[in-house]
Amino acid sequence: MRKVKPENLTPVDLVIFDCDGTLVDSETVATEVLVDYLAELGTQLSFDEALIRFKGGRMADCIVEIEAMRGAPLPADSAKVLRQRIAHHLHQRLQPIEGALELVQSLRVPFCLASNGPLQQIELSLGVTGLLPYFEGRIYSAYEVGSWKPAPDLFLHAASKTGVAPSRCAVVEDSLPGVQAGVAAGMLVFVLQPEQVEPNLPKQAKVISRLAELHDHIDLAG
Question: pTM (2 decimals)?
Answer without folding.
Answer: 0.83
